[in-house]
Amino acid sequence: MEAFTLFHRSRSGRTCGEMTMMVLRRFMSGSLISRCGRGMRSELAQPGPYMKTARPQSDMAEFRKVFSKAKHIVVITGAGVSAESGVPTFRGAAGYWRKWQAQNLATPEAFFRNPSRVWEYYHYRRELVLTKSPNAAHVALAECEARLSRQGRSLVVISQSVDELHSRAGSQHVLEIHGSLFKTRCVRCGDVVVNHRSPICAALEGKGTPDPNADDANIPAELLPRCEKSTCNGLLRPNVVWFGETLNSDILTQVEKELDICDLCLLVGTSSIVYPAAMFAPQVAARGVPVAEFNLRTTPATSHFKFHFLGHCGTTLPPALQRHESEVI
Ligand SMILES: [Zn+2]
Fold first, then answer.
1. For residues 273 and 37, is the Cβ–Cβ distance under 8 A?
2. Shared domain check, 262 and 168
3. Which of 40, 120, 173, 203 has its CA 20 to 30 A from that of 257?
4. Quick check: is 326 in a domain?
5. This prediction's pTM
6. pLDDT digits (tens, 9 = 90+) for 23-60
7. How many angstroms separate the alpha carbon of residue 180 from the centre of ligand 1?
8. Residue 167: which residues within 8 A CB-CB, separation 6 or more?
């Protein structure tokens, strides 16, 4: 039940079980997204302590004053940040790999039915991400975290991406709520291991092309990535959260702690309609904590947050997080 603590706090009055149905991250089906989106809008339409005047574009000087006083900053990031590094979001029309969309591949059922195909897909994504680099938004967050830590202040990133670009930019405190492409989990013993090998195993070398006419490699399970713990040799899977799976309860507990203590929240490159991350910023705003949204477009929740900066976050975030004149270290 620990995993659902966050949902008990929701203002919607939904039961835990109903919220569980709504849980699911960026790979959720379109109909579910749509349903969640409507729920979110109607929920935010109710008068509440977080109601704010709509501000399509905010005053950066005003944001900078709030930023200069913040001691614990939470930054919730989404696919928009990765997209600016050229990492595909695997959504919409561009979301196909061969004939399938993410929601047909990123499920436990797909994996156990055809682990070779699902591993080809993840091998492709791992290799693609390895050719990409952190962008100015990733770097601004990492530099800001390092600077603030010298001043006894903190910045934590709650990432919905699985590409590790925040860590590669130098961010130290990252909570990867959807897991990582570069961690594996043994389906037999549960062991989670960091794995940056390229290719991850010999049999996948040269496989995983997204070409819709490509044939499955049909790699025998014993040649797919296997657990290296002595005596185990279980099949490994990517340590990412798939459709129909709940988020890691230990990570959600850490997320909740950060949301409870933060005095400034940034929402960067995320649509604010995917649960449970969509609940995080409204939860913080309900405590009266300022929320600043950095996004390419307004979202259903925009009008309820104190600040909104429209544009590429690689452009808007660096000036927002640069050293303030009041910072002496
Ligand atoms: Zn194992």
1. yes
2. yes
3. 40
4. no
5. 0.83
6. 333 323 332 333 333 333 332 333 334 444 445 578 99
7. 18
8. 174
